[in-house]
From TrEMBL:
Keywords on record: ATP-binding, Nucleotide-binding
Pfam families: MshEN (PF05157), T2SSE (PF00437)
Gene Ontology MF terms: ATP binding; ATP hydrolysis activity
Protein name (record): Type IV fimbrial assembly, ATPase PilB
Domain Bacterial type II secretion system protein E: 194-573
Domain Type II secretion system protein GspE N-terminal: residue ranges: 79-147
A cellular component term, taken from the record's GO annotations: plasma membrane
Gene3D superfamilies found in the cross-reference section: 1.10.40.70, 3.30.450.90, P-loop containing nucleotide triphosphate hydrolases, Type II secretion system, protein E, N-terminal domain
InterPro entries: P-loop_NTPase, T2SS/T4SS_dom, T2SS_E_N_sf, T2SS_GspE_N
Amino acid sequence: MAYLKLGEILINQDLITSEQLQKAIDVQKKEGGRIGEVFIKLGLITEENMTEAIGLQLGVPYYSSDNPELLKPKTGLGLKEIISSDFCHKNCVLPLSKHLNSLTCAVCDPLDLLLLDNLKRITNHEINVVVATRGSLQKAIADFHKTEAKEEGMASMLDAAVESSYEKSNEDGPTIAVKKSTAAELSLDKLIEKAGEAPVIKLVDLIIRQAIDDRASDIHIEPFDNKIYLRYRIDGKLYNIPPPAPHFHLPIVSRIKILSKLDIAEKRLPQDGTITAKLEDREVDLRISTVPTIWGEKVVMRILDKAAVPLELAGLGFDAKQIEALRKALASPHGLFFVTGPTGSGKSTTLYSAVNETVDPSKNIVTAEDPVEYKLDGINQVSVKPSIGLTFATALKAFLRQDPDIIMVGETRDLETASICVRAALTGHFVLSTLHTNDAASAITRLVDIGVPHYLLTPSLTMILAQRLARRLCLDCKEPYEPDPGQHQGIVFESDLIYRPKGCDECSHTGYHGRLVVAEVLEVNDEIRVLIGNEATALEIKNAARKNGMSTVFESGIKKVDQGETSYEEICRISVE
């Protein structure tokens, strides 16, 4: 392959013209410097353009700033010990991976031969390079070593907490130990005192921060006889985490209660509260639930991190056809839109994303939720409180006097709520809500079962979306294989290769990283309306929808297996056929 000069590559990419190239060469002759830097100085290209072109020129992989995951070093390889933090920052170099005697590093200047020689000398490895812009590389280096400092800080916090516990045990005797006898005898003042100690404060911060960093959706703190279980729910599954010592249980629970403004002295009844955790760059809400068990209070903290959840339909996993249908339905001036599925299937997130799509200064949007999970700008959100009579139905009645355009109801649980939703949809409002059913067509049966007549559903329903959450295959380690129809219920995949989980450091050896929506979208057209009016069964409605092009949850899942996004086993696990 012929060697191309940088200017020729930029011309081939239609980034500059021949005249602009000649102008840059003239400037270079007068002022000196590299030609790429001259292009940038003249405003002809960006640093990103130049870096990509250099990568093409040298045959070196280029890592775009649009995909920061590529600049995330592999864990568990001791990369931080191979090249020091100071060297990385000073020379703008980041070690990414290591295999045998070969080390792959990201650099912003692959022509810096002195740097490459120094890397080879200090690491005693053969050096492979990838190229990235200086800005994206500096950010990746800062993130990499910030994580290192944070991990060291966490370890020291835990050490300090343990050391403090031993000191307190020696000073105060057995009063701090969480035995059945002493735990019950601790006074309110003592609980508050222990909860306010620095090691306990740091330990609770550590538990919450680590869970957020691990992408956990829930934190479980569970007391048992002379031990504590600490578990994080990640991608829908619970994983054991190394727990603190048993005698920390009471101070930890007390600290969480203080933060969430719960009654620290009440240990006999369940309690619910909220905490707002302030991180360096954002705030994260936590929903707290305590339940008394025979060994003490169990605490579950639901993490509601809007930054970790893309509240937009395009980022959840819907395919292009489904997104088009959803947006068409959401553009309707009136109607009833339901999201259905079992607990933990992502209904609330989809509902929030759908409402987010409708935000418009010309529209009045109101929501009734139990509780409010994500705070959205431009939307009037109400948290229902049944204990004082503020139910979904009560809120809905009030909303209808508030000149609404769009109404979101967290869940349709009873006839009164369902009836008001239908009435609102029939009187010119667009209403969104959720139901607990296994598929889309069953939502109609469910509404009829709670008392909504068919003749009201026929004109009001616009769309029903049924969904599940499937775990995404880890991009770093997913393993291709040839599908065998005999092992896959006779299913013939379009792709010659599909993928299965393997496990690596990036996914904590689970083979999966993140989740995506697998859905069936039932558009209520004229044919479906006739069937509803004729009191057709859920199966008849489902079959008609499939003839009109609807893919079931299982069928949508198989498409995602074909596309390499998830595994066949995962679709079988989450599907109900």
